[in-house]
């Protein structure tokens, strides 16, 4: 059995740092606050919301959920978002995505205040991730991957890293964050030829494709480090990743489980980002 990369452990260590930072802010009379904006009742939004609320409570970060009707017009959504932008008591804004189809994300993304945009929706923050400028906010999930690699002192310098998936939520930003740390990055997607062969060349394999247990031991080089970003529900209704953990656990050198892996670090990063946003805004 390979070494388990424990997201829970990493989450706990980020949480401790965050709790201390919140205490400091409160001494200065500042109460950090996150506003979650949810349109409708998408189950995956609700599941993230539950985890986020629990984590924020554990860090003593005030959190409010703005629940908007599934049918809200784009103009009304923008008006609501502008109110949150202007509200000085709110330091961080998390908008659940994807938004309903009638609300154009390519319009709305320009509205969210970049200094409050804790999950990298604004093009300003996307550009900063591309440029390797750490002054903005990278999305929480890719940042969680980096936190795990950092916590376990995994050397990225020149490391042969393969990322499966190229979404704006996971694959693309994590690739840019890895590149910033001088990893050599190969980005794969649904059109990649000989996917298992490309993956099996990696020293570090990051998987975010949304295909339950698709990545088996054929995709994994002996001793490779495997981080599974996937969150799916298997045939028995249990949470599982995009990696077939049972098949890969002996071949990989280090591997994240699901649950208890990357997903459990995401909300800790969210809390960390709220504190960063708060500090940015109070100066
Ligand atoms: N841990 C957490 O907190 C979070 C976890 N997730 C999870 O991460 C996973 C990915 O999410 P997300 O990026 O939003 O998903 P998307 O569906 O937006 O993107 C999936 C990506 O994987 C690629 N892909 C899909 N099927 C294959 C395949 N058979 N072979 C190779 N590449 C493939 C797609 O390629 P193409 O571009 O060619 O279509 C695409 O780039 C999901 O399991 C999701 O639940 C997501 C957000 C947060
Ligand atoms: N702007 C935005 N950013 C997101 O990151 C985002 C989003 N919108 N919309 C919804 C999806 C879905 N998503 C989940 C994350 C964790 C769990 C989850 O189940 N987490 C478990 C832990 C899982 C584990 O331990 O691996 C928990 O919190 O207990 C589910 C869903 C994020 N999303």
UniProtKB/TrEMBL annotation:
The entry's keywords: Amino-acid biosynthesis, Histidine biosynthesis, Hydrolase, Methionine biosynthesis, Multifunctional enzyme, NADP, One-carbon metabolism, Oxidoreductase, Purine biosynthesis
Source organism superkingdom: Bacteria
GO biological process: L-histidine biosynthetic process; methionine biosynthetic process; purine nucleotide biosynthetic process; tetrahydrofolate interconversion
UniProt binding sites for NADP(+): 165-167, 231
CDD domains for the chain: NAD_bind_m-THF_DH_Cyclohyd
GO MF terms, alphabetically ordered: methenyltetrahydrofolate cyclohydrolase activity; methylenetetrahydrofolate dehydrogenase (NADP+) activity
Pathway(s) per entry: One-carbon metabolism; tetrahydrofolate interconversion
Function: Catalyzes the oxidation of 5,10-methylenetetrahydrofolate to 5,10-methenyltetrahydrofolate and then the hydrolysis of 5,10-methenyltetrahydrofolate to 10-formyltetrahydrofolate.
Protein name: Bifunctional protein FolD
Lineage, top ranks: Bacteria, Bacillati, Bacillota, Clostridia, Eubacteriales
GN (gene name): folD
């Amino acid at each position: 059995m390979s070494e388990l990369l424990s997201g829970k452990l990493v989450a706990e260590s980020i949480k401790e740092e965050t709790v201390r930072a919140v205490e400091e802010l409160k001494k200065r009379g500042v109460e950090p606050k996150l506003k979650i904006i949810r349109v409708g009742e998408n189950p995956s939004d609700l599941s993230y919301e539950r985890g986020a609320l629990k984590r924020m409570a554990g860090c003593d970060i005030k959190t409010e959920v703005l629940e908007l009707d599934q049918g809200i017009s784009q103009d009304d959504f923008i008006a609501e978002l502008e109110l949150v932008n202007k509200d000085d008591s709110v330091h961080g804004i998390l908008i659940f995505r994807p938004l309903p189809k009638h609300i154009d994300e390519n319009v709305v993304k320009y509205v969210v205040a970049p200094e409050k945009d804790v999950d990298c929706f604004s093009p300003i923050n996307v550009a900063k991730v591309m440029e390797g400028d750490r002054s903005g906010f990278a999305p929480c999930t890719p940042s969680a991957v980096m936190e795990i690699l950092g916590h376990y002192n995994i050397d990225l310098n020149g490391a042969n890293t393969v990322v499966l998936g190229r979404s704006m939520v996971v694959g693309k930003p994590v690739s840019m964050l890895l590149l910033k740390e001088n990893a050599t990055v190969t980005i794969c997607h649904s059109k990649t030829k000989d996917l298992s062969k490309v993956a099996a060349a990696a020293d570090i394999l990051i998987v975010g494709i949304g295909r339950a247990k698709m990545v088996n031991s054929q995709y994994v080089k002996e001793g490779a480090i495997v981080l599974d970003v996937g969150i799916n529900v298997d045939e028995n209704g249990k949470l599982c990743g995009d990696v077939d953990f049972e098949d890969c656990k002996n071949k990989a050198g280090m591997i994240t489980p699901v649950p208890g892996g990357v997903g459990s670090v995401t909300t800790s990063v969210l809390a960390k980002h709220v504190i960063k946003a708060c500090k940015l805004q109070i100066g």
